[in-house]
Every structure is written in structure tokens, then in C-alpha cells.
Write a structure and sequence with these properties.
- The protein has 416 residues and is of the alpha+beta class.
- It folds into 2 domains: 4-105, Alpha-Beta Complex (Outer Surface Protein A, domain 3), CATH 3.90.930; 116-415, 3-Layer(aba) Sandwich (Protocatechuate 4,5-dioxygenase, Chain B).
- Helix content is 38%, strand content 18%.
- The chain has helices at 47-53, 62-73, 79-91, 98-113, 130-142, 169-185, 224-232, 249-252, 255-261, 288-308, 335-353, 357-366, 376-385, and strands at 18-24, 27-33, 42-46, 161-164, 191-197, 206-208, 213-215, 218-220, 269-275, 312-317, 322-323, 391-400, 407-415.
- The strands form 3 sheets. Strands 4, 5, 6, 9, 10, 11, 12 and 13 form an 8-stranded mixed β-sheet that branches. A 3-stranded antiparallel β-sheet has the order 1-2-3.
- A hairpin with a 2-residue loop joins β1 (18-24) and β2 (27-33).
- α11 packs antiparallel against α12 (357-366).
- The longest helix is centred in the C-terminal third of the chain and has 21 residues, at 288-308.
Length: 416
Amino acid sequence: MADSAKDPKQFPLLRNLQFSPIKDKDEQFVLFWDPTGLSAEKLVVPLNYFYLLQHFDGEHSLDQIGAQYLKKFGEFFMPDRLEKLVADLDEKLFLEGERVEAAKRDAQTAYRLTPLRPAAFAGKSYEGDREKLKAQLEGFLSSREGPDFKPSANKGKRIKGIVAPHYELPMAGPIYAWAYKELWEAETPDLFVILGTCHAGLKNCFAVTDKDFETPLGIVPVNREVLDRFRQKGGELFFEEDSSHRNEHSIEFQLPFLQHTVGSTKPMTILPVLCAFPPACLIDPALRPAAERVGTFISLLTSAMAESGKEACVIASAELAHIGMRYGDSAPPTDFSFHRCMQTDLEMLKTVEELNGDAFAQFIHKEEDRRRISGFSAIYTLLKLIQAEKGQVLRYDRSVTDQFNSTVTYASMAFF
């Protein structure tokens, strides 16, 4: 007899979805969506349903979920309604289970058959027309919030890496521009390792793809020589989740800036890598397997680049703190809590300026990642890959992400 505890219809498990509170007049709802793009559906639920969904953790049975609802609201949530909710969520690919696993297999097959990784967000998150995109990028560089036109103090130096946001370009574009102006004026190699943040998570901590990337400004080729060496040294494991690149924006958002600055003057290639691992895995012995995978990846990539004779500039696509109700806090941030967050961010970034990846991890771990630093894995990996003398925060800013003042912070940095 099958163990009923493993029956997803009786013990539903919600996937790693993103959500945001929304308000319509005096009523409050929660919007859910799938960051992987496996499901294109959106789900808007009232707060009582949101309470229910918090118990879709694979541990609570439908009976237990109904009992929790009764205890919370003092009324029954009828079993047939609960079963229908489970069926609807399964249909939308919002629940873990065989339907989702089959969809993942299909998506991976389709991705591997495509000749390149298309521009998934062109025309949505940034201009989709070539000339309009060039004008948009120039506007970021010359805007009031962007870098001024005075030459950088580091002009002409060999640049080792940058950190740039991956927030929506219309809002954060001028902050990207601070990092890319440094890149524009520096001496750069022709290989760029782009470390994106994988918002959907990764089993193997890293996901490498061998697909060339397309944007409205043209095709950005991957460096197949380095990727082949990386594979031959034992890096095949890190290609297993390559379809994670299909709908992840964090690498794509860097490419127009990179093409407009460096790519407009010389040929270049990239190594596209998505990253996802918590600081705790580098500190907590119970998470040692993840720490070993991180170490293995960094060692293999460093060795592959050294053997190829290629020098690279590393780009970390990263956001910092996520505070407010959209990200799990019980109340919206206040001016005081934001300024305290900003001070903590800048204190944390001092460890990055000092090129101390382990201190960076310890800083976030010590505060129990209460501010949800989403770019940790990309920035940490950059620090372990580059050989630099110094880092510098160029610009720091934030964006408000919903009607409840939820806030994302980000910064541009350069390393020489």
C-alpha cells in the first residue's frame, strides 16, 4: 500500500513561487507567479486563501489544512472546495508532482534543441528595437542619476570585475551605468564571466549553459574553448540545469550594457553562469555538500580559464536587500527601517570592497539573512574568481516594488 504521506493530492506541496501583495480599493489580495516561466499562469487569491497556501508544504494533509483554517477563521473550508483548489493549482503547474516534472523535462528538451538563448525580456523590461535600445542605454549613461562625464580615476587600468543590479532597466538603468562606465573606460579582456542570480533556486548551486545569447543588439557568443575545457575537467554536473537560463533575466539584463560599451569596439565572448546557494552552506557543517559543490565549481572554472590562457572580467548580476510585505515581513518598511537597512548594506559591502568573500558570508549569516540578500551567491563567486587589489562601491540605490512600499536595494561596484 502506498504511503499516503507521499500522495501529493493529500499532502500538496507548493512550488517555489514568487508572490506580491496587491490592493484593489479596500480589499487586499496576493498575486502568485512562477519565476522559472514553466507556468505562464498568474494566480490572485484573497488573504484567507493565502493563509491556506502557506500550509501547502508537503507536511500538512488536506484534513490538517482544513482544521488549521477552522481554527484561524472559525468556519469550515469544505473538503470539496479544498480538493478543487489542489486540482486547479496542479493544473496551473503550481504544485510539485508528476505534472510539473513532465513539464520540466519537456522544457529542458525544448531548450536544448534551440540554436541560441533568445531575448526573453526584450520589449518588456527594456526596448526591443535596436535603435531605441541604444538610445535607452545612452539615456541611462547621461541621466541625472547616472555617472557624470568626467573620466574615471581608474581609466585605462585593467578591470577585474564589476557588480551591477538586475532590477528592471527603466528604474535601475542609471545605476547599471555607473558600473558599465568603468568597464567602458578601463582596459578589458575579451572574455566575460557573467554570474547571474537564479531566482528559482538550483540543486547544484550553479547552472552553466553553452547557448549563445541573443539581444536586439545582436548575438553574444559563448566561449566554447573554455566551456569545453571546463566540461573535460569534470564540470558536466553544472550543465544539468541549463534550462534554468530559459526564463531567468539576471544575465540577459547585463548583455545590452556589455554590448553597448565593450562590444561596440571589439569582439567578445561570455561564460553565462547562474548561481544560487545560501551563505549558511559555507558555514554550517550540515550543509557541507553544497559548500563542496561551490568549491568544486570555482576550482574547475579557474583551472579551465588558466589552461586556456584566457583572462576574464567577471560580472556579478546581483541585488541586495529585499524588505517589506512582498518578501515576507509582517509590515511595510518605514523611512527609519529603510535607512537602517541602507547603513547595514553599506557596512556589508565593505567586506566586498575588501575582497573578503568569507567575511561577506559571515556578515549575512550572522544577521540570519533577515534582509534576504539575493545576490550573495553571484558576488561571493566573483570574489573567489578574481585577483584584484581593491573594490569600490560606485553607487547605491533602491526601488519600491509594490503598493505597500516593499523595497529592493542594489549597488554598482568595480574591482581593479
